[in-house]
Amino acid sequence: DGGITQSPKYLFRKEGQNVTLSCEQNLNHDAMYWYRQDPGQGLRLIYYSQIVNDFQKGDIAEGYSVSREKKESFPLTVTSAQKNPTAFYLCASSPLAGDSYTFGSGTRLTVV
Amino acid sequence: KNQVEQSPQSLIILEGKNCTLQCNYTVSPFSNLRWYKQDTGRGPVSLTIMTFSENTKSNGRYTATLDADTKQSSLHITASQLSDSASYICVVSKKGGGNKLTFGTGTQLKVEL
After folding, report:
1. From residue A90, how far is each of A13, A78, B13 by CA, in Å?
2. For residue A75, is the peptide bond before it cis, meaning its omega torsion is within 30 degrees of 0?
3. A112: distance to nearest CA of chain B, Å?
4. Rounded mean pLDDT of B35-60?
5. Model pLDDT for residues B71-83, shown as the tens digit of each residue
6. Sheet containing B72-77: which strands, arranged edge to edge?
7. Residue-level pLDDT at A2
8. Cβ contacts (< 8 Å) between A33 and chain B: which residues?
């Protein structure tokens, strides 16, 4: 089955540590996205990529970094510079044209 | 500023009853509007997507309406089931904005016995 897989489902991080969230898709989508979801707020875009080896900052990119070395993969690194990293992180993918927009099942990151 | 506002913020209904969720948006120029269902701790799943020319679209017991003139949409759930308990998110896409979306904060629906 085609889909988008995020791992791990739960992640705990100590303050001052970097941590990387995985996102893999086998939908042959060109574009991939990372969102952050906090209680009472709509999803906010962190980074997106429309092609391999290229990505753009979203609305809240500070303290995060990404890479797009393969079409299928778009990992997100939460760095120690992110002041409030505890949140639910969602990865999504879509074709460049068309309406299909698919979300992964999310990773809940908790800073301890 | 492009915004999507949903109401009510939360809703409790009895199993078998109908309910209607509202979405108002200011995103312009408009491309399409989507409704997603998000179970707790899971990713959003698409229910419907409507373009400017579509007034209504159904997906089983879910029926979405769109009034592009007043920039309003609604999601009607018929004969609710316990499994309908979830957050329902309205999402609007801007024409020429690629696939960057503007998300509402969601309506938290709880269906009780």
Report:
1. 17, 13, 29
2. no
3. 19
4. 94
5. 999 999 999 999 9
6. B4-7, B19-25, B72-77, B62-67, B56-59
7. 65
8. 99
